[in-house]
Amino acid sequence: MLIDTNALILFLMILPVISFLYASVGHGGASGYLALMALFSFPNEIMKQTALLLNLFVAGISFYHYYRAGHFKKNLFIPFAIGSVPAAFLGGTMSLEPMVYKKILGVLLLFAIVRMLWKGATDERKISEVKTVQALLFGLAVGFFSGLIGIGGGIILTPLILLLHWGNMKEAAAVSALFIWVNSAAGLLGQFSSGVTLVPLSGLMVIIAVIGGMGGSYLGSRKWNNTFLEYFSAFVLTTASLKLLFF
Q1: Whose CB has fewer CB within 10 Å in the chain, the N or C terminal residue?
Q2: Residue 1, domain member (yes or no)
Q3: Mean pLDDT, range 34-59, rounded to an integer
Q4: Band (121; pLDDT cuts 50, 70, 90)
Q5: Which positions ≥6 away from 211 have C-beta within 8 Å?
């Protein structure tokens, strides 16, 4: 992997900021990691599996804190997961042409930007009953693209839950965290079944991302919402999306 040493050091300094931010809202951060890797010109061949690996650790930590804080709704999670897990595995076995991959990723990053900037409805609104068949179909679609692109799907699932009034912000974050974990695991298994391997740098990236994820998930589940970092992340994602789509 041919990356300038100074650029790599800067990348590793920004990485825990991304994991901190995403973990604070119950996400694993794959869209942020992919955006960051795109900005630093990482080879396409290593981006997908690396983002899924980081997702496993950071989303797992996020779920632990949100679950301990009492925000997890099992009945909301199950239908999404039943649809998404096999689809994420299938998507993980597939590969795209580098240019096609970049364009699709660039478009999906726009969802992450909307998620960061959109504040949605408040916790005072009325929560509606989950429609099982609808949740299964949404899970199927989100899971497939999660495995195909190398994301956990939380950037799509969280605003979807809020839009449909199936949970409040904390509940959506808790469900998304576990949803991201199972999708990332399925997508990564699909990658490995296709002969894809991890690079040695992945281990160091996991350690650094976990440090940020631990702090972000604790504060996000129990203490506060980090508006400044949301706008900072939206700026990073916008820059990466523009780079992927137009350059």
Answers
A1: C
A2: no
A3: 89
A4: very low
A5: 16, 19
3-class SS of residue 1: coil
Asked if 38 and 228 touch (Cβ cutoff 8 Å), the reply is: no
Contact predicate 156/96, CB 8 Å: no
CB-based contact 109:30 (threshold 8 Å)? no
Q: What pLDDT is attached to residue 122?
A: 45
User: Is 9 part of a structural domain of the chain?
Assistant: no
The number of distinct structural domains making up the chain is: 1
- Structure tokens given for 167: 């949970």
Domain that holds residue 206: 18-246
116 close to 233: Cβ distance less than 8 angstroms = yes
In a domain, 4, yes or no: no
Please check the confidence at residue 44 and state whether its pLDDT lies above 90: no
> What does pLDDT average to over the chain?
83
Q: What does the DSSP assignment read for 137-187?
A: HHHHHHHHHHHHHT--SHHHHHHHHHHTTSS-HHHHHHHHHHHHHHHHHHH
DSSP state of 125: S
Share of the chain above pLDDT 70, in %: 88
Q: Is residue 208 part of a domain?
A: yes
